[in-house]
Sequence to fold (163 residues):
Amino acid sequence: MPTVVVVNGPNLNRLGTREPEIYGTTTLAGVEKMVRVRGREIGWKVEFFQSNHEGALIDRVHAAADSGADGIILNGAALTHYSYALADALRSVDIPTVEVHISDIHSRESWRRRSVTGDACIAVLAGLGVEGYTTALDLLVERGAVARARRRPAATRKRKAPT
Ligand code: DQA
Fold:
């Protein structure tokens, strides 16, 4: 069964009560449930992780590679905007990653507009609320499958019939 690792950064453990006018009232446990339900529907195993510590997030990305995970969904929270270490961790593993932000980082303070981790991802979703997580999983399934098919040696790929 393919596996997605959902990695959540600093302060996301406070979802539900943290600035609800920006992030809504769904808790992180609620987000986890939503992603697990979607995973069950599409036959993907979901591993869910949150830490307030940069190094722990980097270790979790490395562990995802070591265990052969098929995709990562990352909400690096504020680390998104300045953690070159987390961005490099993503580059150090060959796992398609979709970055998610609950809020629209482009319509907030100017320092939030830049995502250094997003540069190492196949897509960045922002402003979809907590639904962004399940949308990210759908995208990962679609894009990840395409990427895996491309990586397969040419001989195992189905050839298009000549026209
Ligand atoms: C966030 C946006 C970040 O700018 C912020 O630091 C967060 C949450 C989001 O999900 O909208 O902690 O990643």
In short: The chain has one domain: 3-157. The longest strand covers residues 3-8. The domain at 3-157 is CATH 3.40.50.9100 (Rossmann fold).
